[in-house]
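INTERNAL TRANSFER SHEET
From: sequence group
To: structure group
Subject: beta-glucosidase

Please process the attached sequence and return the structure record in the designated field. Keep the field labels unchanged so the import script can parse them.
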Amino acid sequence: MPRTALLVSTALCAALLTPAVSRAAADPPSVAVDRFEGEVPFASQPAEGIFTWGGDSDDPPALQLTARPDAPEGEKVLTGTYDISGYGGFTHDFAADRPAHDWSAHRGVRLWWEGQGTGRKIAFEIKDGGAHGEASELWTTSFTDDFTGWKQVELPFTDFVYRTDYQPVGGIDHVLGLTQMWGYALTLPVGVKGRFAVDGVELYGTADQSLRAAVTTDAAVHPVTEGGDATVQVTLTTTGAAPVDQPVTVAYGTAGGTARPGTDYTPVSGTLTFPAGTASGATRTVRVHTLKDRSAEPAETIPLKLTVTGAKPPAEDPEVVVDAHGLPYLDAKLPVRRRVADLLSRMSLEEKAGQMTQAERGAMSAPGDIAAYGLGSLLSGGGSTPTPNTPAAWAKMIDAFQLRTRATRFQIPLVYGVDAVHGHNNLAGATVMPHNIGLGATRDPALVQRTGAVTAAEVRATGVPWDFAPCLCVTRDERWGRSYESFGEDPALVESMETIVQGLQGRADGSDLDRSDKVLATAKHFVGDGGTTYGSSTTGTYTIDQGVTHVTRQQLEAVHLAPYQEAVDRGVGTVMPSYSSLDITGDGRGPVRMHARGDMINGVLKGRMGFDGFVISDWNAIDQLPGDYAAHVRSAVTAGVDMMMVPYGYKDFATTLAGEVRAGRVSERRVDDAVARILTQKFRLGLFEHPYADTRGAAAIGSPAHRAVARRAAAESQVLLKNDGGLLPLRTSQKVYVAGSNADDIGNQSGGWTLTWQGSSGAITPGTTILEGLREAGGHVTYSRDASAPTAGHDVGVVVVGETPYAEGVGDVGNGHDLRLSAADQQAVDTVCAAMKCVVLVVSGRPQLLGDRLPGIDALVASWLPGTEGAGVADVLYGRRPFTGQLPVTWPKSEAQLPINVGDTAYDPQFPYGWGLTTLTPAPRGGAATLKALAAAARAADRAGADRTGAALVARARLIVQQKAGQHITAAFAGPFAEADHLLLTGRYGEAVEKLTAAYRAA
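Return from structure group:
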């Protein structure tokens, strides 16, 4: 699908264009772009041509060249019919293998349109710069079909605006230069059947200087301490840096606002002139002097109105703001509780509603809305990044958003959030950690805390103080597309990994949150998202994600709620409810969406557990609640959700919430509680004192020290499932044949939520692939992705197979995914393992079904999704580190066994939960007698509270048991073996060894 095909946001569409006017005598002749006489074929890139596109298979319009006696120009016109449900239209792209066109000498583009009187907007897009028509910068305007019959519609280039809702390349220079044009596109109306006819697309008129010259200011908001001077810089810029050939004047004057002229500031007015011949970059200055009145006050605004002649004016007039001062909430020496109470007492209902509203950065086509609606938060969704995607650009972007908050009465800073779920994964060049499923395999809480600390440092250094992590779901069915976001299937394992909260936030009392290397953490998704029933989802084509969790009250407490109490005890600052529904046996309510479950959010989380942070909704989650929009707002707020993630609907939410409070359907007391919780975290983060990015730590982003932590995490996450004949570790003297789809693909080994929401294959970010790690280890390596290269002469094969990236319900089994290896991966395994001893590494977010191939595989490794440091995988393969990882989830024999989890009555997996062979350490000697002695010692450790000793005793017993079992894993063995690991994690060491003894007897 062409990337230009996305529906143009109505917020970017210009108003109705005026009818065509006769060309001035001085205008040059028009230049034809399309006459539709057959001179341009129906074709697509790289050739020049006209082609259609649409969101669904039936959305592209049907086009043809039609002979018409009423054709405005020539004999034929382009006609078409359409019936579009998503988006659709057509494009004329110029040939990619020829030079781009130069439209800079003209005023605009015009076309003949046969009006149907529909009153619908027709979006017209032009393509500027870049490599070709599908890798260009997009600029758009529109006209309205509110007439009948043929009419020539003129679209001045001055009316075109840069698309902020979608850009195929993320932006090139954000300047409509018109010197490298690659074509145009029309987007047709949605939701109605229609027909159209168009003719004579052409360039007309003489270029307007305002297309080549613009007046800008250094900032839209200029905060100043009372009594100080604000300096507003006014700059003239031109395309190509050419001097202006006509004078440009800027008349200015202070007027309006909340500050009082003569009392709060000295009014100014005048005219700035840039004479003909002025070079691009010339700057003039306007100074506004503010006055002291010696009283404590909120911030006051002084708009500076600019009237520009001869150039394009700034998108908005600048505003001088006299900072708030003297008010108690601004006093950093006061306790947070007092500061919150003071600020809350001063706020209007609209200001409170704004604080409860979170918008997406991509929705900020009008950044002034931050102040106009008093927004409390912005976020970057997956793949929502600045251009370029660098630490400096992140900090600059967020600082620009924070600057907007200075124009509000109380200058409450934004709290900006990102999904940094395995490192700062939206940022190119960041250190990408293994996904949680791999961290769960490490069984190393101290290391997991270090991964959280690295993530926090890299996130905060870009100006982001809030991370929507960690996910505390307990995954109970590996068909779930979010399985890899979980630390594992055992709530005890999840709880043990919650050291990551301290890595992110620091001390549990929140006293470290104002540090430049800590962020606010988010426990998600409350509660039961990992337990949804397969087939219960009603979201699109999802099969399990966002479905229904059917549980007894006891199961809910023991499995899904337990990790949240641990998170609250660790001081987690925010909690995010799940999209899923909860159906508790016997409560008589049936399935209820979590965002409406006040019994769980207000009752259990905030009440019984004592959570004192704030609850943030998931992306547009309230839209899934029953009733109209007002009911959505009422239900979620009343249930205890404090801030709504309403990415593009922030205006509707803020105004609806205020209306519901005024109507008495939502209590202002509930609103006050929500806002107090939000403000508390903002004060703890130190945002009132330091709202802007502290980038001193930016140099450490992606640094060797940070990557060393990720490399160790990748190494410890590797789970050795099989190792016949001690094939691993490899020796550098061996000739190694490497194959498979995931051997040399950093995108695949990083998985979803890497640079974009779904992630993608390929060299998407700096790092080391597994193949590169093997080569760096010093081995003799031959690589053939598809195993087509000759296999003779090699000592051992390493076949790296598994999944390609996905995220959330897109990755659900049954939604275009299954748990089997691809045909190409199967062929690579078969080819290599038939030719030599082989190691198979499975790079995936969940277990893969190997079926009858397992006997032919000498060594098998669950690599999970190791992130950017593939050298960590090589470390254990070549014996620089031992294999120590253990399965965080049960590895099934077949999909029919799912769901299968530790503690199940029927439990007969391929490999049990907790399984994991080791290398470099010989298995301890001994049998039943040794285990009996270990059990006695472990019981003594229980009584003494000697956790480290008890854990070591269990680990020794586990190695003895695994040694005896080999690959003969039966149901009688697997059950007690898996249960032993759960007992270990809950501190019952004696019982764990007893379970291992039972497994030993069954082996």
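Handover comment: Residues 1-25 have pLDDT under 50 and may be disordered. The radius of gyration is 32 Å.
Transfer complete.
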